[in-house]
């Protein structure tokens, strides 16, 4: 973990210059909050070059931090739920940060609800745990067991129904309209059935106990609406979000953007700050084609075939569109359905002392002056600003320093508090045009009144914090939010999340696709508020752009992760294999040659041996009597306590996914079964049989070599398979001739997605050495890698088709790098991966060219090979673009 602020700023504070804009962009994203960065990562993962533009001086949106007088303050990340290892949200986050982001669980109880004035305060702890949460409530409220059980039933049932919200935004618009206008939405989903009901109405029906009502509803501050204006379904999502616990990012909120940005850059993209976008550019056909960025006194136009706004629906439609497009009926309809959220007020305290000395824990306090939240908030927000400033009746209190285990190492003897409440934008609006760092005296006086009122509450709750311990204190008002995070009305949760936000019609209407071609929306306003909601918005927008349901992908990944974790913990093999969707095969007959159902076959001959088992040639016993390849594994309990190896799991899962799409250049998995035999597990995979692998195929080619047409045919099929994999977010990572199958009819199919070689026809070299010859430089240099590693391997295979021998034959990683640099030349130090532990040195090689060893290459072959074997991953050609290369054009 990097603690050096200057090093982090090299990533987070890259200022905009026209010269820093990458060439040939695939997309521009406006705004670097979670919804913008998350989507940029998703697109980068499939090789798209994305430019993210941020108007502030640092990336991250509400995930950014700032430092004053040696204190680092988080502005928007206080605690995140649903981060158990096997949950879809956690799996998605791990994918978006390459597993580098670490999370620290909060205390249990993670929240404390404080009700009433100082002379009559009641405190109720909120525990995580699907069983413990209601049990602890029952201890606090004896006699209310029935109300608590019914509350939990409703919350869980409504929370589970959110799938239809995503579906309405992803399915074709006519189908979405049909579901909405026929009333099916409310029939299909309890989420939409309960959405029109206010939180107040539901809890008032459950109990007469006002404190229990307050505890049921206390978390309304995390989405910004009074209980009487809140949808019960929205509230249910927040409650279920924290049922399994709450977490905080180790190293602080800045770690989120810090680990996302390198992935975007690896694909050739960039995240540039101090880049205020003042308008979206459109061509004559009214298609988005770029943005205009203000730099000093000039406008700089940046073009891309796609523009995605994470700036919020109001900023996008009311500020960034030309007037004639703002007036479009479809645009106005969306705007009429939404309204701005309530403004937020934050106070930041820097304290002398450790968390132990100050009595701070890794938890949060929700403090309310009374237990009728609707009356409390309404009176406060409708009051005169001077009166409200001296009596802030609701407050959220958190200590980022107490939650972060790295804090003491980074800032010894110091602590911080973040305090959040509501405030009306109109209270401060008259000073919105003042310079942010030098607003009028009256503004400062009003802000100080809020600070004093809030500080009085905090000091009464935390007796160990005294005024002499306060080293730093300041506040951010709604107009501060407008200045730093671009919130039109100072809101912190985007558009309002009241009851109307969750009507099926609005859910189906406000979608990632805008009424304007090539313009999309991402983030909170597309899906839901908060960090998790913004990332769900990114996932939804990514699903539309990539034409695949990434929500389902994250769920599938979570299931696989849960299975792998269970194996690592030594849980029951048979049951967990079933949950992984491998069927149990009926082996009661005792026959080792026949799988009784559902696919029957006869083993003909053993054709290879792998790490865990053997490969057989087989014939289908009925039906088409196809030739099959049968891979039999036996994982012994005493030899493999963790059960099925993760690479096998990945192989089966990916092959099953590929089977669903039935691509002609991906080997087909026809059947999979698993059977527990004592302490061992028999795993059988049945695949289509292919005559030989590419290595064997090449060994039969005469010395005169392959014809150019044959080379084209093999490469074209290989690239079609790779393009399919990359479009479906799959990296092969071990592409080599032994993993490419060639049938007698010339069909080329990619195989082996993680298993020890299923097809083992040519075993002259060990897998490690063979793999080394096709390994990309960034992998050899222990740097982060992505889909471009497969294109490097494809380039190596392309050269081998021309040479009939491997292009780079090194026997150590260092030797392999030297072989590479002998051909392509030593890259510049600027291109050397900054995250590589291997230092740059001119001793690695000199200038070179792909023509050095391939004298007879034509210009098209040379150009394609050079683009495949580019040292810089972002400069490497993609499979899709390679297929359009002149080399494959028919003359």
Automatic annotation (TrEMBL):
<dbReference type="Pfam" id="PF00069">
    <property type="entry name" value="Pkinase"/>
</dbReference>
<keyword id="KW-0067">ATP-binding</keyword>
<dbReference type="InterPro" id="IPR000719">
    <property type="entry name" value="Prot_kinase_dom"/>
</dbReference>
<keyword id="KW-0472">Membrane</keyword>
<keyword id="KW-0418">Kinase</keyword>
<dbReference type="InterPro" id="IPR036188">
    <property type="entry name" value="FAD/NAD-bd_sf"/>
</dbReference>
<keyword id="KW-0732">Signal</keyword>
<dbReference type="Pfam" id="PF01593">
    <property type="entry name" value="Amino_oxidase"/>
</dbReference>
<dbReference type="InterPro" id="IPR017441">
    <property type="entry name" value="Protein_kinase_ATP_BS"/>
</dbReference>
<feature type="domain" description="Protein kinase">
    <location>
        <begin position="601"/>
        <end position="888"/>
    </location>
</feature>
<dbReference type="GO" id="GO:0051786">
    <property type="term" value="F:all-trans-retinol 13,14-reductase activity"/>
</dbReference>
<dbReference type="GO" id="GO:0004707">
    <property type="term" value="F:MAP kinase activity"/>
</dbReference>
<keyword id="KW-0547">Nucleotide-binding</keyword>
<dbReference type="GO" id="GO:0004693">
    <property type="term" value="F:cyclin-dependent protein serine/threonine kinase activity"/>
</dbReference>
<keyword id="KW-0723">Serine/threonine-protein kinase</keyword>
<keyword id="KW-0560">Oxidoreductase</keyword>
<feature type="transmembrane region" description="Helical">
    <location>
        <begin position="162"/>
        <end position="184"/>
    </location>
</feature>
<comment type="similarity">
    <text>Belongs to the carotenoid/retinoid oxidoreductase family. CrtISO subfamily.</text>
</comment>
<dbReference type="GO" id="GO:0005524">
    <property type="term" value="F:ATP binding"/>
</dbReference>
<keyword id="KW-0256">Endoplasmic reticulum</keyword>
<keyword id="KW-0520">NAD</keyword>
<keyword id="KW-0521">NADP</keyword>
<keyword id="KW-0285">Flavoprotein</keyword>
<keyword id="KW-0812">Transmembrane</keyword>
<feature type="binding site">
    <location>
        <position position="632"/>
    </location>
    <ligand>
        <name>ATP</name>
    </ligand>
</feature>
<keyword id="KW-0808">Transferase</keyword>
<protein>
    <recommendedName>
        <fullName>All-trans-retinol 13,14-reductase</fullName>
        <ecNumber>1.3.99.23</ecNumber>
        <ecNumber>2.7.11.22</ecNumber>
        <ecNumber>2.7.11.24</ecNumber>
    </recommendedName>
</protein>
<dbReference type="InterPro" id="IPR011009">
    <property type="entry name" value="Kinase-like_dom_sf"/>
</dbReference>
<dbReference type="InterPro" id="IPR008271">
    <property type="entry name" value="Ser/Thr_kinase_AS"/>
</dbReference>
<dbReference type="GO" id="GO:0005789">
    <property type="term" value="C:endoplasmic reticulum membrane"/>
</dbReference>
<keyword id="KW-1133">Transmembrane helix</keyword>
<comment type="similarity">
    <text>Belongs to the protein kinase superfamily. CMGC Ser/Thr protein kinase family. CDC2/CDKX subfamily.</text>
</comment>
<dbReference type="InterPro" id="IPR052206">
    <property type="entry name" value="Retinol_saturase"/>
</dbReference>
<keyword id="KW-0274">FAD</keyword>
<dbReference type="InterPro" id="IPR002937">
    <property type="entry name" value="Amino_oxidase"/>
</dbReference>
<keyword id="KW-0443">Lipid metabolism</keyword>
């Amino acid at each position: 973990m990097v603690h050096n602020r200057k090093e982090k700023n090299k990533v987070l504070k890259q200022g905009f210059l026209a010269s820093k804009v990458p060439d040939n962009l695939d997309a521009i994203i406006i705004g670097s909050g979670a919804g913008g960065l998350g989507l940029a990562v998703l697109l980068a993962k499939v090789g798209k070059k994305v430019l993210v533009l941020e108007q502030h001086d640092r990336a991250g949106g509400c995930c950014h931090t700032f430092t004053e007088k040696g204190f680092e303050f988080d502005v928007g990340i206080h605690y995140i739920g649903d981060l158990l290892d096997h949950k879809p949200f956690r799996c998605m986050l791990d994918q978006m940060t390459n597993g580098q982001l670490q999370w620290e669980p909060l205390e249990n109880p993670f929240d404390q609800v404080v009700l009433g004035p100082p002379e009559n305060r009641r405190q109720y702890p909120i525990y995580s745990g699907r069983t413990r949460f209601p049990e602890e409530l029952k201890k606090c409220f004896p006699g209310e067991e029935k109300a608590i059980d019914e509350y939990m039933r409703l919350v869980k049932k409504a929370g589970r129904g959110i799938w239809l919200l995503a579906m309405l935004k992803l399915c074709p618009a006519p189908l979405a309209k049909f579901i909405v206008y026929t009333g099916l939405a409310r029939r299909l989903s309890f989420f939409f059935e309960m959405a029109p009901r206010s939180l107040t109405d539901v809890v008032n029906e459950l109990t007469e106990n006002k404190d229990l009502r307050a505890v049921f509803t206390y978390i309304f501050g995390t989405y910004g609406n009074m209980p009487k204006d809140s949808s019960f379904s929205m509230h249910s999502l927040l409650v279920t979000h924290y049922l399994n616990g709450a977490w905080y990012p180790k190293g602080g909120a800045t770690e989120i953007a810090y680990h996302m940005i390198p992935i975007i850059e690896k694909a050739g993209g960039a995240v540039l700050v101090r880049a205020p976008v003042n308008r979206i550019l459109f061509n004559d056909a009214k298609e988005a084609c770029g943005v205009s960025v203000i730099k000093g006194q000039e406008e700089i136009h940046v073009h891309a075939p796609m523009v995605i706004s994470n700036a919020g629906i109001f900023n996008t439609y009311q500020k960034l569109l030309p007037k004639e497009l703002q007036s479009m009926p479809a645009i106005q309809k969306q705007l009429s359905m939404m309204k701005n959220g309530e403004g937020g007020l934050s106070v930041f305290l820097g304290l002398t002392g450790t968390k132990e000395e100050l009595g701070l824990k890794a938890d949060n306090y929700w403090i309310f002056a009374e237990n009728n939240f609707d009356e409390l908030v309404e009176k406060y927000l409708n009051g005169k600003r001077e009166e409200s400033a001296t009596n802030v009746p609701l407050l959220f209190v958190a200590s980022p320093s107490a939650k972060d285990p790295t804090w003491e190492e980074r800032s010894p003897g110091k602590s911080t508090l973040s305090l959040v409440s509501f405030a009306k934008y109109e209270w401060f609006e008259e000073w919105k045009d003042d310079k942010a760092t030098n607003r009028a005296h009256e503004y400062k006086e009003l802000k100080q009144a809020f600070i004093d009122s809030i500080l009085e509450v905090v000091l009464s709750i935390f007796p160990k914090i005294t005024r002499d311990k306060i080293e730093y204190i300041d506040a951010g008002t709604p107009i501060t939010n407008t200045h730093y995070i671009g919130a039109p009305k100072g809101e912190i949760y985007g558009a309002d999340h009241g009851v109307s936000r969750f009507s099926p019609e609005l859910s189906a209407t406000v979608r990632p696709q805008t009424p304007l071609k090539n313009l999309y929306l991402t983030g909170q306003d597309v899906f839901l508020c908060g960090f998790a909601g913004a990332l769900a918005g990114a996932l939804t927008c990514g699903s539309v752009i990539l034409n695949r349901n990434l929500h389902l992908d994250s769920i599938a990944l979570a299931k696989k992760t849960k299975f792998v974790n269970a194996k690592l913990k030594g849980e029951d093999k048979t049951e967990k294999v079933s949950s992984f969707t491998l069927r149990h095969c009926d082996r009661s007959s005792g026959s080792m040659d026949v799988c009784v159902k559902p696919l029957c076959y006869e083993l003909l001959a053993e054709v290879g041996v792998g790490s865990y088992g053997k490969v057989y040639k087989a014939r289908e016993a009925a039906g088409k009597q196809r030739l099959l390849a049968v891979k039999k594994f036996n994982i012994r309990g005493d030899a493999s306590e963790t059960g099925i190896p993760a690479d096998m799991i990945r192989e089966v899962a990916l092959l099953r996914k590929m089977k669903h799409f039935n691509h002609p250049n991906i080997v087909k998995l026809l059947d999979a079964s698993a059977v527990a035999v004592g302490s061992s597990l028999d795993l059988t995979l049945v695949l289509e049989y292919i005559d030989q692998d590419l290595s064997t195929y090449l060994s039969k080619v005469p010395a005169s070599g392959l014809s150019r047409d044959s080379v084209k045919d093999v490469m074209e099929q290989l690239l079609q398979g790779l393009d399919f994999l990359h479009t479906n977010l799959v990296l092969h990572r071990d592409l080599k001739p032994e993993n490419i199958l060639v049938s007698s009819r010339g069909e080329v199919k990619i195989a082996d997605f993680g298993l020890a070689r299923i097809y083992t026809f040519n075993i002259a070299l060990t897998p490690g050495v063979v793999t080394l010859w096709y390994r990309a430089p960034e992998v050899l240099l222990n740097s982060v890698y992505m889909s471009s590693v497969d294109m490097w391997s494809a380039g190596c295979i392309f050269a081998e088709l021309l040479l009939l021998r491997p292009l780079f034959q090194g026997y150590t990683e260092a030797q392999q790098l030297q072989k590479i640099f002998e051909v392509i030349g030593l890259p510049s130090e600027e291109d050397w991966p900054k995250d590589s532990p291997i230092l740059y040195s001119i001793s690695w090689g000199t200038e070179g060219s792909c023509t050095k060893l391939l004298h007879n290459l034509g210009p098209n072959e040379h150009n394609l090979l050079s683009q495949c074997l580019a040292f810089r991953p972002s400069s490497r050609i993609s499979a899709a673009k390679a297929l359009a290369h002149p080399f494959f054009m028919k003359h």
